[in-house]
Amino acid sequence: MRGARVTASAIDASAVTGALPAGRAHETPARPSARRLLGLYLLLGFAAGLPFYMFNAVLALRLSKHGVDIVIIGFFAWIALLPTFKFAWAPLIERYDVPGFARFWGRRRGWIMLSQLGIFTAMVAMAFTSSDKSLPLTALFAILLAFWTTTLEVAADGWRIELAPTQAEQAPIVAANLWGYRSAMVAAGSGAVLVAAWADWTIAYLVVAVAAFAPFPILAAMRPAREGANGRVTALLTGVLASLVILLAATLVTAAIGWLLLSAAQGAGISAKTNVTPIVLAVALLPFVLLALALPRINRLSADTIARKPGFAAPYVELFWRYGYAVLAVLAFVSLYRMGDVLTLTLSQVLMNDRGYSLHQIGVAQGVVALSASMAGVALGGFLSTRLSLGWTLGIGAVTAAVGNWIYVWLAYSAPSDFVLYTSVAIDQFGNGFAGTVFVIYLSMLVSPTHPAAQYALLSGFAFLLPRLLAGASGSMQTQIGYDGFFLLSGALSFAAIFLLPVIARVKGRIAT
Fold first, then answer.
1. Total structural domains in the chain?
2. What is the dihedral of CA 98, 173, 9, 85, to 10 degrees?
3. CB within 10 Å: which end of the chain, N or C, has fewer?
4. Whole-angstrom Cα distance, residue 57 to residue 348?
Protein backbone atom coordinates (compact mmCIF):
# COMPACT_ATOMS: atom_id res chain seq x y z
CA MET A 1 0.00 0.00 0.00
CA ARG A 2 1.07 3.60 -0.46
CA GLY A 3 2.15 5.49 2.61
CA ALA A 4 1.68 9.07 3.69
CA ARG A 5 3.42 11.82 1.80
CA VAL A 6 6.31 13.41 3.65
CA THR A 7 9.30 15.62 2.86
CA ALA A 8 12.46 14.13 1.40
CA SER A 9 14.49 14.92 4.50
CA ALA A 10 11.87 13.28 6.70
CA ILE A 11 11.98 10.19 4.54
CA ASP A 12 15.71 9.82 5.03
CA ALA A 13 15.53 10.49 8.76
CA SER A 14 12.76 7.95 9.34
CA ALA A 15 14.28 5.26 7.16
CA VAL A 16 17.79 5.25 8.59
CA THR A 17 17.15 1.98 10.38
CA GLY A 18 16.19 0.24 7.15
CA ALA A 19 18.11 -2.70 5.80
CA LEU A 20 21.27 -2.21 3.84
CA PRO A 21 21.46 -3.49 0.25
CA ALA A 22 22.11 -7.14 -0.33
CA GLY A 23 25.69 -8.21 0.20
CA ARG A 24 26.58 -5.48 2.69
CA ALA A 25 26.17 -7.47 5.88
CA HIS A 26 29.88 -8.26 6.13
CA GLU A 27 30.82 -4.62 6.80
CA THR A 28 30.73 -3.15 10.28
CA PRO A 29 27.78 -0.74 10.62
CA ALA A 30 29.34 1.12 13.56
CA ARG A 31 29.58 4.87 13.06
CA PRO A 32 33.00 6.52 13.60
CA SER A 33 33.26 9.32 16.12
CA ALA A 34 32.34 12.81 14.88
CA ARG A 35 35.99 13.91 14.80
CA ARG A 36 37.13 10.81 12.91
CA LEU A 37 34.23 11.13 10.49
CA LEU A 38 35.12 14.72 9.65
CA GLY A 39 38.79 13.79 9.24
CA LEU A 40 37.86 10.83 7.05
CA TYR A 41 35.80 12.93 4.67
CA LEU A 42 38.37 15.69 4.62
CA LEU A 43 40.81 13.03 3.37
CA LEU A 44 38.36 11.54 0.86
CA GLY A 45 37.53 14.99 -0.47
CA PHE A 46 41.25 15.64 -0.92
CA ALA A 47 41.70 12.36 -2.79
CA ALA A 48 38.84 13.13 -5.21
CA GLY A 49 39.63 16.82 -5.67
CA LEU A 50 43.24 16.55 -6.82
CA PRO A 51 42.50 14.94 -10.22
CA PHE A 52 39.49 17.08 -11.17
CA TYR A 53 41.23 20.12 -12.67
CA MET A 54 43.79 17.85 -14.35
CA PHE A 55 41.24 16.57 -16.87
CA ASN A 56 39.27 19.82 -16.89
CA ALA A 57 40.51 23.41 -16.46
CA VAL A 58 44.26 22.61 -16.36
CA LEU A 59 43.94 20.39 -19.43
CA ALA A 60 42.08 23.20 -21.24
CA LEU A 61 44.91 25.61 -20.39
CA ARG A 62 47.51 23.05 -21.47
CA LEU A 63 45.78 22.56 -24.83
CA SER A 64 45.46 26.34 -25.24
CA LYS A 65 49.19 26.78 -24.65
CA HIS A 66 49.85 24.14 -27.31
CA GLY A 67 47.80 26.11 -29.84
CA VAL A 68 44.80 23.80 -30.01
CA ASP A 69 41.73 25.49 -31.52
CA ILE A 70 39.24 26.81 -28.93
CA VAL A 71 36.42 24.77 -30.48
CA ILE A 72 38.43 21.58 -30.00
CA ILE A 73 39.19 22.65 -26.42
CA GLY A 74 35.45 22.99 -25.93
CA PHE A 75 34.98 19.43 -27.19
CA PHE A 76 37.44 18.25 -24.52
CA ALA A 77 35.06 19.66 -21.91
CA TRP A 78 32.77 16.73 -22.76
CA ILE A 79 35.17 14.50 -20.85
CA ALA A 80 33.56 15.99 -17.75
CA LEU A 81 30.30 14.43 -19.00
CA LEU A 82 31.50 11.02 -17.81
CA PRO A 83 30.59 11.65 -14.16
CA THR A 84 27.01 12.45 -15.21
CA PHE A 85 26.60 8.84 -16.33
CA LYS A 86 27.98 7.32 -13.13
CA PHE A 87 24.56 5.85 -12.41
CA ALA A 88 25.43 3.31 -15.13
CA TRP A 89 28.07 1.65 -12.95
CA ALA A 90 27.08 2.82 -9.45
CA PRO A 91 24.98 -0.34 -8.80
CA LEU A 92 28.12 -2.41 -9.37
CA ILE A 93 29.78 -0.53 -6.51
CA GLU A 94 26.74 -1.23 -4.32
CA ARG A 95 26.72 -4.95 -5.12
CA TYR A 96 30.24 -6.23 -5.92
CA ASP A 97 33.55 -6.36 -4.05
CA VAL A 98 37.04 -5.54 -5.31
CA PRO A 99 39.02 -8.80 -4.96
CA GLY A 100 41.55 -8.67 -2.15
CA PHE A 101 40.82 -5.17 -0.89
CA ALA A 102 37.22 -5.86 0.17
CA ARG A 103 38.15 -8.92 2.25
CA PHE A 104 40.06 -6.78 4.72
CA TRP A 105 38.90 -3.18 4.24
CA GLY A 106 35.32 -3.70 3.12
CA ARG A 107 33.43 -2.85 -0.04
CA ARG A 108 33.45 0.95 0.11
CA ARG A 109 37.12 1.30 0.98
CA GLY A 110 38.01 -1.43 -1.53
CA TRP A 111 36.50 0.59 -4.38
CA ILE A 112 38.17 3.76 -3.11
CA MET A 113 41.58 2.07 -3.09
CA LEU A 114 41.08 0.66 -6.61
CA SER A 115 40.03 4.12 -7.78
CA GLN A 116 43.16 5.71 -6.36
CA LEU A 117 45.32 3.27 -8.29
CA GLY A 118 43.36 4.15 -11.41
CA ILE A 119 43.78 7.88 -10.79
CA PHE A 120 47.53 7.51 -10.31
CA THR A 121 48.15 5.44 -13.45
CA ALA A 122 45.93 7.64 -15.65
CA MET A 123 47.66 10.82 -14.50
CA VAL A 124 51.11 9.32 -15.06
CA ALA A 125 50.00 8.42 -18.59
CA MET A 126 48.80 12.01 -19.13
CA ALA A 127 52.20 13.23 -17.92
CA PHE A 128 54.10 11.24 -20.53
CA THR A 129 51.77 12.37 -23.34
CA SER A 130 51.82 16.03 -22.28
CA SER A 131 53.05 17.25 -25.66
CA ASP A 132 49.48 16.66 -26.93
CA LYS A 133 50.82 15.62 -30.34
CA SER A 134 48.14 12.90 -30.41
CA LEU A 135 44.87 14.42 -29.22
CA PRO A 136 43.01 11.05 -29.25
CA LEU A 137 45.66 9.66 -26.87
CA THR A 138 45.35 12.72 -24.65
CA ALA A 139 41.59 12.23 -24.60
CA LEU A 140 41.90 8.51 -23.73
CA PHE A 141 43.95 9.07 -20.59
CA ALA A 142 41.86 12.09 -19.57
CA ILE A 143 38.71 9.96 -19.83
CA LEU A 144 40.28 7.23 -17.69
CA LEU A 145 41.26 9.84 -15.12
CA ALA A 146 37.68 11.14 -15.06
CA PHE A 147 36.29 7.60 -14.76
CA TRP A 148 38.37 6.58 -11.75
CA THR A 149 37.88 9.94 -10.05
CA THR A 150 34.13 9.50 -10.42
CA THR A 151 34.22 5.93 -9.13
CA LEU A 152 35.99 7.11 -6.00
CA GLU A 153 33.30 9.74 -5.47
CA VAL A 154 30.47 7.22 -5.91
CA ALA A 155 31.88 4.93 -3.21
CA ALA A 156 32.60 7.82 -0.85
CA ASP A 157 29.17 9.43 -1.35
CA GLY A 158 27.31 6.20 -0.64
CA TRP A 159 29.30 5.71 2.55
CA ARG A 160 28.67 9.31 3.63
CA ILE A 161 24.91 9.07 3.26
CA GLU A 162 24.81 5.80 5.18
CA LEU A 163 26.80 7.33 8.05
CA ALA A 164 24.87 10.64 8.23
CA PRO A 165 21.25 10.42 7.01
CA THR A 166 19.85 13.78 8.23
CA GLN A 167 20.38 17.39 7.11
CA ALA A 168 21.92 18.42 10.45
CA GLU A 169 24.40 15.51 10.30
CA GLN A 170 25.19 16.02 6.63
CA ALA A 171 26.08 19.73 6.85
CA PRO A 172 29.41 19.45 8.76
CA ILE A 173 30.46 16.29 6.89
CA VAL A 174 29.70 17.84 3.50
CA ALA A 175 31.60 20.98 4.54
CA ALA A 176 34.63 18.90 5.60
CA ASN A 177 34.45 16.87 2.40
CA LEU A 178 34.25 19.98 0.24
CA TRP A 179 37.06 21.65 2.17
CA GLY A 180 39.24 18.68 1.30
CA TYR A 181 37.91 18.52 -2.25
CA ARG A 182 38.24 22.19 -3.07
CA SER A 183 41.57 22.69 -1.32
CA ALA A 184 42.97 19.74 -3.28
CA MET A 185 41.33 20.89 -6.52
CA VAL A 186 42.66 24.42 -6.19
CA ALA A 187 46.06 23.24 -4.99
CA ALA A 188 46.32 20.87 -7.95
CA GLY A 189 45.18 23.49 -10.44
CA SER A 190 47.43 26.20 -9.07
CA GLY A 191 50.33 23.86 -8.32
CA ALA A 192 50.24 22.23 -11.74
CA VAL A 193 50.23 25.60 -13.50
CA LEU A 194 53.10 26.94 -11.37
CA VAL A 195 55.16 23.77 -11.84
CA ALA A 196 54.49 23.91 -15.60
CA ALA A 197 55.70 27.51 -15.63
CA TRP A 198 58.83 26.49 -13.73
CA ALA A 199 59.51 23.17 -15.52
CA ASP A 200 57.02 21.62 -17.98
CA TRP A 201 53.63 19.90 -18.14
CA THR A 202 55.11 16.41 -17.69
CA ILE A 203 56.63 17.29 -14.32
CA ALA A 204 53.42 19.10 -13.34
CA TYR A 205 51.25 16.03 -13.91
CA LEU A 206 53.74 13.72 -12.20
CA VAL A 207 53.81 15.91 -9.09
CA VAL A 208 50.03 15.92 -8.83
CA ALA A 209 49.89 12.15 -9.50
CA VAL A 210 52.17 11.50 -6.52
CA ALA A 211 50.12 13.82 -4.31
CA ALA A 212 46.88 12.15 -5.41
CA PHE A 213 48.25 8.75 -4.39
CA ALA A 214 49.20 9.91 -0.87
CA PRO A 215 45.88 8.87 0.79
CA PHE A 216 46.29 5.26 -0.42
CA PRO A 217 48.75 4.17 2.30
CA ILE A 218 46.63 5.97 4.90
CA LEU A 219 43.58 3.95 3.87
CA ALA A 220 45.69 0.77 3.78
CA ALA A 221 46.77 1.41 7.38
CA MET A 222 43.20 1.80 8.65
CA ARG A 223 41.54 -0.90 10.73
CA PRO A 224 39.67 -3.76 9.03
CA ALA A 225 36.01 -3.43 8.14
CA ARG A 226 34.95 -6.33 10.36
CA GLU A 227 36.17 -7.76 13.63
CA GLY A 228 38.62 -10.61 13.41
CA ALA A 229 39.78 -9.84 9.87
CA ASN A 230 43.46 -10.63 9.27
CA GLY A 231 45.96 -11.00 6.46
CA ARG A 232 46.46 -7.30 5.67
CA VAL A 233 49.57 -7.86 3.51
CA THR A 234 47.98 -10.73 1.58
CA ALA A 235 44.83 -8.69 1.01
CA LEU A 236 46.90 -5.72 -0.17
CA LEU A 237 48.97 -7.76 -2.65
CA THR A 238 45.90 -9.57 -3.97
CA GLY A 239 44.04 -6.30 -4.31
CA VAL A 240 46.86 -4.61 -6.20
CA LEU A 241 47.20 -7.51 -8.64
CA ALA A 242 43.45 -7.65 -9.23
CA SER A 243 43.41 -3.88 -9.66
CA LEU A 244 46.10 -4.00 -12.36
CA VAL A 245 43.98 -6.46 -14.33
CA ILE A 246 40.90 -4.27 -13.91
CA LEU A 247 42.82 -1.13 -14.93
CA LEU A 248 44.17 -2.79 -18.08
CA ALA A 249 40.71 -4.05 -19.03
CA ALA A 250 39.20 -0.60 -18.46
CA THR A 251 41.88 0.99 -20.66
CA LEU A 252 41.26 -1.43 -23.53
CA VAL A 253 37.48 -1.06 -23.34
CA THR A 254 37.72 2.74 -23.21
CA ALA A 255 40.09 2.83 -26.19
CA ALA A 256 37.75 0.60 -28.22
CA ILE A 257 34.68 2.70 -27.41
CA GLY A 258 36.59 5.90 -28.16
CA TRP A 259 37.70 4.58 -31.54
CA LEU A 260 34.12 3.65 -32.44
CA LEU A 261 32.79 7.07 -31.42
CA LEU A 262 35.51 8.94 -33.33
CA SER A 263 34.85 6.83 -36.42
CA ALA A 264 31.13 7.51 -36.13
CA ALA A 265 31.71 11.28 -35.74
CA GLN A 266 34.02 11.38 -38.72
CA GLY A 267 31.54 9.33 -40.74
CA ALA A 268 28.81 11.83 -39.85
CA GLY A 269 31.02 14.70 -40.99
CA ILE A 270 31.40 16.31 -37.55
CA SER A 271 34.48 18.55 -37.28
CA ALA A 272 35.70 21.64 -35.47
CA LYS A 273 33.66 23.75 -37.89
CA THR A 274 30.41 21.93 -37.14
CA ASN A 275 27.78 23.82 -35.10
CA VAL A 276 27.16 21.13 -32.49
CA THR A 277 24.93 23.17 -30.17
CA PRO A 278 21.59 21.89 -31.64
CA ILE A 279 22.89 18.30 -31.45
CA VAL A 280 23.95 18.83 -27.86
CA LEU A 281 20.54 20.18 -26.85
CA ALA A 282 18.73 17.28 -28.53
CA VAL A 283 20.89 14.73 -26.71
CA ALA A 284 20.38 16.55 -23.40
CA LEU A 285 16.60 16.41 -23.73
CA LEU A 286 16.54 12.67 -24.51
CA PRO A 287 16.83 11.43 -20.89
CA PHE A 288 13.92 13.67 -19.86
CA VAL A 289 11.79 12.25 -22.65
CA LEU A 290 12.63 8.64 -21.79
CA LEU A 291 11.92 9.24 -18.12
CA ALA A 292 8.58 10.89 -18.88
CA LEU A 293 7.59 7.87 -20.96
CA ALA A 294 8.51 5.44 -18.16
CA LEU A 295 6.91 7.37 -15.28
CA PRO A 296 3.25 6.35 -15.82
CA ARG A 297 4.13 2.68 -15.54
CA ILE A 298 6.43 3.23 -12.55
CA ASN A 299 3.80 5.35 -10.81
CA ARG A 300 1.26 2.50 -10.99
CA LEU A 301 3.51 0.00 -9.20
CA SER A 302 2.50 -1.02 -5.70
CA ALA A 303 4.63 -0.36 -2.64
CA ASP A 304 5.15 -4.12 -2.19
CA THR A 305 6.44 -4.44 -5.75
CA ILE A 306 8.87 -1.57 -5.16
CA ALA A 307 10.13 -3.13 -1.93
CA ARG A 308 10.81 -6.46 -3.68
CA LYS A 309 12.23 -4.97 -6.88
CA PRO A 310 15.55 -6.72 -7.64
CA GLY A 311 18.36 -6.00 -10.04
CA PHE A 312 20.22 -3.13 -11.60
CA ALA A 313 17.27 -0.76 -12.02
CA ALA A 314 15.85 -1.15 -8.49
CA PRO A 315 17.43 2.01 -6.97
CA TYR A 316 16.21 4.19 -9.82
CA VAL A 317 12.71 2.72 -10.01
CA GLU A 318 12.32 3.33 -6.26
CA LEU A 319 13.42 6.96 -6.63
CA PHE A 320 11.03 7.66 -9.52
CA TRP A 321 8.16 5.88 -7.74
CA ARG A 322 8.74 7.80 -4.52
CA TYR A 323 8.48 11.23 -6.16
CA GLY A 324 6.18 10.35 -9.05
CA TYR A 325 5.73 13.05 -11.67
CA ALA A 326 7.36 15.58 -9.32
CA VAL A 327 10.70 13.94 -10.12
CA LEU A 328 10.63 15.82 -13.44
CA ALA A 329 10.58 19.14 -11.57
CA VAL A 330 13.39 17.94 -9.30
CA LEU A 331 15.55 16.89 -12.25
CA ALA A 332 14.87 20.15 -14.08
CA PHE A 333 15.95 22.12 -10.99
CA VAL A 334 19.13 20.13 -10.36
CA SER A 335 20.08 20.37 -14.05
CA LEU A 336 19.82 24.15 -13.95
CA TYR A 337 21.29 24.92 -10.53
CA ARG A 338 25.01 24.40 -11.31
CA MET A 339 24.87 25.11 -15.04
CA GLY A 340 26.41 28.57 -14.86
CA ASP A 341 29.35 27.40 -12.76
CA VAL A 342 30.10 24.51 -15.14
CA LEU A 343 30.09 26.80 -18.18
CA THR A 344 32.24 29.39 -16.40
CA LEU A 345 34.81 26.79 -15.35
CA THR A 346 35.24 25.66 -18.97
CA LEU A 347 36.46 28.97 -20.36
CA SER A 348 37.54 31.07 -17.37
CA GLN A 349 41.22 30.10 -17.58
CA VAL A 350 41.14 30.24 -21.38
CA LEU A 351 39.88 33.83 -21.02
CA MET A 352 42.73 34.61 -18.62
CA ASN A 353 45.24 33.25 -21.11
CA ASP A 354 43.68 35.24 -23.99
CA ARG A 355 43.78 38.42 -21.88
CA GLY A 356 47.54 38.00 -21.56
CA TYR A 357 47.89 36.73 -17.99
CA SER A 358 50.97 34.58 -17.40
CA LEU A 359 50.97 31.03 -16.08
CA HIS A 360 52.45 32.39 -12.85
CA GLN A 361 49.60 34.90 -12.39
CA ILE A 362 46.96 32.30 -13.19
CA GLY A 363 48.61 29.85 -10.81
CA VAL A 364 48.58 32.33 -7.92
CA ALA A 365 44.96 33.27 -8.63
CA GLN A 366 43.90 29.61 -8.67
CA GLY A 367 45.96 28.94 -5.54
CA VAL A 368 45.81 31.05 -2.40
CA VAL A 369 43.11 33.39 -3.70
CA ALA A 370 40.75 30.69 -4.97
CA LEU A 371 41.33 28.40 -2.00
CA SER A 372 40.63 31.08 0.62
CA ALA A 373 37.49 32.32 -1.10
CA SER A 374 36.18 28.81 -1.79
CA MET A 375 36.73 27.69 1.81
CA ALA A 376 34.85 30.76 3.05
CA GLY A 377 31.93 29.93 0.75
CA VAL A 378 31.88 26.28 1.83
CA ALA A 379 32.00 27.22 5.53
CA LEU A 380 29.18 29.75 5.23
CA GLY A 381 27.07 27.33 3.17
CA GLY A 382 27.54 24.54 5.71
CA PHE A 383 26.81 26.87 8.65
CA LEU A 384 23.63 28.34 7.16
CA SER A 385 22.40 24.86 6.25
CA THR A 386 22.25 24.04 9.96
CA ARG A 387 20.26 27.24 10.67
CA LEU A 388 18.00 27.83 7.66
CA SER A 389 15.75 25.73 5.46
CA LEU A 390 17.22 24.32 2.29
CA GLY A 391 14.94 26.58 0.24
CA TRP A 392 16.59 29.70 1.64
CA THR A 393 20.14 28.39 1.36
CA LEU A 394 19.56 27.18 -2.20
CA GLY A 395 18.24 30.63 -3.14
CA ILE A 396 21.24 32.41 -1.63
CA GLY A 397 23.52 29.96 -3.42
CA ALA A 398 21.91 30.73 -6.79
CA VAL A 399 22.52 34.47 -6.31
CA THR A 400 26.15 34.10 -5.20
CA ALA A 401 26.88 31.70 -8.08
CA ALA A 402 25.36 34.12 -10.62
CA VAL A 403 27.47 37.03 -9.35
CA GLY A 404 30.56 34.81 -9.53
CA ASN A 405 29.81 34.04 -13.19
CA TRP A 406 29.08 37.65 -14.15
CA ILE A 407 32.33 38.92 -12.64
CA TYR A 408 34.25 37.53 -15.63
CA VAL A 409 32.56 40.08 -17.89
CA TRP A 410 34.45 42.70 -15.86
CA LEU A 411 37.69 40.74 -16.29
CA ALA A 412 37.13 40.46 -20.04
CA TYR A 413 36.78 44.25 -20.43
CA SER A 414 39.39 45.37 -17.88
CA ALA A 415 43.06 45.98 -18.56
CA PRO A 416 45.10 43.05 -17.20
CA SER A 417 46.11 43.58 -13.56
CA ASP A 418 46.61 41.44 -10.48
CA PHE A 419 43.75 43.22 -8.69
CA VAL A 420 41.22 42.47 -11.44
CA LEU A 421 42.34 38.84 -11.75
CA TYR A 422 42.42 38.06 -8.03
CA THR A 423 39.15 39.86 -7.25
CA SER A 424 37.35 38.04 -10.08
CA VAL A 425 38.60 34.63 -9.01
CA ALA A 426 37.78 35.31 -5.34
CA ILE A 427 34.17 36.30 -6.05
CA ASP A 428 33.71 33.36 -8.42
CA GLN A 429 35.14 30.80 -6.01
CA PHE A 430 33.17 32.09 -3.01
CA GLY A 431 29.89 31.72 -4.90
CA ASN A 432 30.94 28.35 -6.28
CA GLY A 433 31.84 27.05 -2.82
CA PHE A 434 28.61 28.24 -1.20
CA ALA A 435 26.31 26.95 -3.95
CA GLY A 436 28.19 23.64 -4.17
CA THR A 437 27.81 22.96 -0.44
CA VAL A 438 24.06 23.55 -0.17
CA PHE A 439 23.50 21.65 -3.41
CA VAL A 440 25.27 18.51 -2.12
CA ILE A 441 23.18 18.64 1.06
CA TYR A 442 19.98 19.01 -0.98
CA LEU A 443 20.80 16.00 -3.17
CA SER A 444 21.73 13.92 -0.12
CA MET A 445 18.31 14.57 1.39
CA LEU A 446 16.56 13.23 -1.72
CA VAL A 447 17.96 9.70 -1.64
CA SER A 448 16.80 6.56 0.13
CA PRO A 449 19.21 5.04 2.70
CA THR A 450 18.69 1.61 1.13
CA HIS A 451 20.27 2.75 -2.17
CA PRO A 452 22.45 5.75 -1.22
CA ALA A 453 25.33 5.41 -3.68
CA ALA A 454 23.24 4.54 -6.74
CA GLN A 455 20.53 7.17 -6.19
CA TYR A 456 23.01 9.91 -5.31
CA ALA A 457 25.01 8.94 -8.41
CA LEU A 458 21.90 9.31 -10.57
CA LEU A 459 20.87 12.67 -9.11
CA SER A 460 24.34 14.22 -9.01
CA GLY A 461 25.14 12.83 -12.46
CA PHE A 462 21.89 14.08 -13.95
CA ALA A 463 22.53 17.48 -12.33
CA PHE A 464 25.56 17.96 -14.57
CA LEU A 465 24.33 16.26 -17.74
CA LEU A 466 22.90 19.32 -19.50
CA PRO A 467 25.55 21.74 -18.14
CA ARG A 468 28.43 19.58 -19.33
CA LEU A 469 26.82 18.88 -22.68
CA LEU A 470 26.55 22.62 -23.19
CA ALA A 471 30.10 23.10 -21.87
CA GLY A 472 31.35 20.97 -24.75
CA ALA A 473 29.84 23.55 -27.10
CA SER A 474 31.26 26.48 -25.10
CA GLY A 475 33.97 27.14 -27.68
CA SER A 476 31.38 27.39 -30.44
CA MET A 477 29.21 29.63 -28.23
CA GLN A 478 32.14 31.94 -27.48
CA THR A 479 32.95 32.41 -31.16
CA GLN A 480 29.35 33.55 -31.75
CA ILE A 481 28.59 35.74 -28.70
CA GLY A 482 32.06 36.61 -27.36
CA TYR A 483 33.37 36.25 -23.83
CA ASP A 484 31.05 38.93 -22.46
CA GLY A 485 27.94 37.27 -23.88
CA PHE A 486 29.13 33.86 -22.73
CA PHE A 487 29.63 34.85 -19.08
CA LEU A 488 26.45 36.96 -19.01
CA LEU A 489 24.56 33.87 -20.16
CA SER A 490 26.29 31.69 -17.56
CA GLY A 491 25.25 33.99 -14.73
CA ALA A 492 21.69 34.26 -16.00
CA LEU A 493 21.37 30.46 -16.01
CA SER A 494 22.61 30.26 -12.40
CA PHE A 495 20.14 32.94 -11.31
CA ALA A 496 17.21 31.31 -13.16
CA ALA A 497 17.19 28.40 -10.69
CA ILE A 498 15.51 30.73 -8.16
CA PHE A 499 12.29 30.67 -10.16
CA LEU A 500 11.95 26.89 -9.66
CA LEU A 501 12.41 27.04 -5.88
CA PRO A 502 8.67 27.58 -5.09
CA VAL A 503 7.90 24.40 -7.03
CA ILE A 504 10.72 22.41 -5.44
CA ALA A 505 9.67 23.47 -1.93
CA ARG A 506 6.28 21.78 -2.43
CA VAL A 507 7.68 18.49 -3.74
CA LYS A 508 6.80 15.61 -1.43
CA GLY A 509 7.85 11.99 -1.47
CA ARG A 510 6.01 8.84 -0.48
CA ILE A 511 7.27 5.79 1.35
CA ALA A 512 6.21 2.17 1.40
CA THR A 513 4.60 1.12 4.68
1. 1
2. -40
3. N
4. 8
